[in-house]
Every structure is written in C-alpha cells, then in structure tokens.
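Researcher: Please translate sequence to structure tokens.
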Amino acid sequence: MMNSIVLRPVILCLICLGIYWDAATSMVSVWLSSETYKHCFLIIPIVIYLFWERKQDLAVLDYKPNLYLLPVLFFIQVIAFIGDSLGVNLIGHLALYSSIVTILWLCLGNAFVKAFMFPLFFLGFSVPFGEELVPMLQDVTAFLTVELLRIFSIPIYREGLYLYIPNGTFLVAEACAGIRFLIASFALGTLYAYMNYKTKWKMAAFIVASLVVPIIANGLRAFGIVVIGYSTDMEHATGADHLVYGWFFFAFVLLILFWLGHFGAEKVSWNRLSKTASAQTQSLSNVATVGTLLLLLAIPSYTYVAFGSQNKALDLTLSTDLQQSFDARASSLEWQPFINNPHEQWSGTLNQVPTYIAKFHFDDGEYELVNGLSRTYDIDKWTKKSSGIIATEKGVVNTTQLVNVKGENITLFWWFDVDGERTPGGLRTKIKQVLSKVKGNKGKGSFIALEGKDWESLAPLANQLNKPLL
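Model: Translation complete:
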C-alpha cells in the first residue's frame, strides 16, 4: 500500500509539470541563458540525493493525506492564472514549485513534510529569482567602495554609478553587482548549514552570514580593483582583469566562510522513523488524488476557454504613417533603449525631439510589453543619476536623469501606453494589460521614451503619441 500511496503524488506532480510545461521550459531557458542561474542545474540532483539519503524513512512514515490543503492548491492555481494573464514568468515559476510541494504535502501528509522539510524548501532554489536586486546591489557596492576609498584618503568622486579617481574612471556595472555570487553563496550556505548543524540558531546564523558576507566581500572586491587601478596608473584591473580577480576573490571568500563554519559544526544524525501507514490512509489518498487532479485541470480549462481563441493577428496599418513622421536622417539615439522582442519599433527625431517607440500588438510569454530583459537606455554608455515620476492628465510618466563617462547629462521621459493611459511599468502596467485582454484588446500597448529638458515642452508631442499613431 505504501508504494501506491507514494506513487500517486509522484504521478500528480508529473501531471502538474505537464500543465505548467511553459513555466518549466521558461525556467530551464533562464538557467541556460543567464550565468547567474547556472547553479540551478544542481538543485534537483541535490534534492533527489537528500531524499535518497533517507529512503528508509519513506517506507515507515505515517502517511495521512491533509485534505485541508485542497483550498491552498486551488488558491495557487488562481495565482498562477493571474500571473499568466499578467505575463509575469516569476509567478508561473513560483506556482510550479508551490504546486509540487503542496501536492506532496496534501497527498502524503504532515509527517512527510516534517521529515523532508529541508529538501522541499531547497527545491525552491531552482526558481530563478534575484535579478530585481541588481540596481540596489550596484548602489551598495558603489557606496562601500567610495567609503573605503575615503578611509584610505584616495581622491574619489561619485556621479551615479561612475566612480572618478585622478587617473581613471570606473563604472559599477550590472556584472559588478555581485548577484551571481550572492545567490550561489545563499544556496550553498543553506545546504552547508543543513548538513553541518543541528542547533537552529547556528543554522540561522550561518545562513544569514552566507547572505551578508557576499555583499561586503563584493564591496571589498570593487575597492581592491579601484586601488589596483589607482596604484598602477590604470595598467591593471581594467577590462576583463577585474572579472578574473573577482572570481578568485569570491572563491577565497567562500573557502574562508566554510572553514570558519566548520569550527561550530555538529554531528548530524537522522532519527529513523518507526510508524506505519494507518488503515484509513487509502481512502483519504483516493480523495486527495481525485481532488488534486480536478483542481489542476480546472484553471487551465477555464484559461483555454476564456483566452485560448483570442485572435493574435498583427495590425500593421499604422506603421507607414509613424515611420514617415520620423526624420530619416536620425535613425538612432545616443541612449538607444533595448526593448525585448517588440512587434515594431522606431527611433529617431520626431518634431525635433529624440524619440523611441516600441509597439506590441498583443502580449504573451514571447512578446511582453513589460519584460525584465528590456532596458530603458543603453546601460553600456549611460548610468542613472536620479529618477522620479510625473503625474499627467493621462497617467504617470517616469523621469530618469542619465550621465555618461564624459560627464554629459540628459533627461528621459518614458512610460507604457495601454489603451491610451500612461503607466509607469511593473505590476501596474501588467494589471492594465489584463483588463485590456478582458475587453478583447489582447493586452496591446507601447513603450515610449522622449529626451528633453522638461515635461511641459514635451507634453504636446506626448499627447499626440497617445492617439492615432499607436
């Protein structure tokens, strides 16, 4: 009977994986395309090993399905549906992970979750998350670098993410934020704490250290690179050198962290369980299996009926009019944005105003108006000095002041247009797109960016761009 009870949730998890296949393939594509998440390929094998290490317990656990989790599973499916409608991949990734954990908990019961809580938690590291922290980490790294340089009386001037010393300039780029090291350190630190500590406070302390140490270490790394550049008159620690130095430094920091953690390590031994399955487990398992299957199929069926037949044919009737409005002599911009996979885009001078427009005729997983890969400006040439928002009669507009390595400053005014309303991006724009889909407009919208000194001078052009051309 035990084999049947354990096998059912495994099959349900495979069905769940099939239902969330787009989310699963999206996760794997992120693992493949981003150096930040290469460690995710190791998470599932590690989780399998953690279960295999205690395989004897699987035969003696008291399996009592927890039917109270059926509403929780339904709630997760609703959130997944909303996330899919919003086009937020992270919600789909989290829903896949949460559904698998909830199915196992629902079908196998509290005793199973108590015995295997850590492997179930550690599986969450397979979800690619953390890129949202990059801007904050860039600021923290720049701050730590400047403060350390001042302590050692090295002349330093900071403007945005540019650091100026007498004999050169450094940019705290996205690659210098330390997010790769932070996420990898957090995952390894959590696993190390589980394998080497029994005391809860020691586990928590080491996990916190695995988060704090990488941030401080990244600041020290950036400080060291600037000092090397300053001391060698920029002959070293430039170009790819600082990346090589960084990885050696990070490897050294991890070794030190684990070496220090070894002094407080405790012998971890698992108490073998001795309970057996109860007689009523089989009937509860039947209810859990049927209920789970119905909940997994209900939301996707509704999604197909509600949105599966929406027409995604492209409407290109306005392309020629908009293209002819631009000055053909100025087809590129100094701050040229990168918008991921738009249906159409234009850049150049419109009414003597440097303008960029990207148009999306519908919104889905492949074509997303709001996408984490998109960049408002060329991050290789410009860095953000300050930002803000402006309330207009047709919605909210973002303002971003940029500075380049030459000290030149420009101001961008940008927004997302959905159904003629200006939105600042993020969740607010996604929700607006869902409402647009409900109205049958397929979530279409545009990204618009203008360069200028003040909003008042740009408002007439901006109002025109909210009308027929889009």
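Researcher: Any highlights?
Model: The chain has three domains: 2-128+279-307, 131-263, 319-465.
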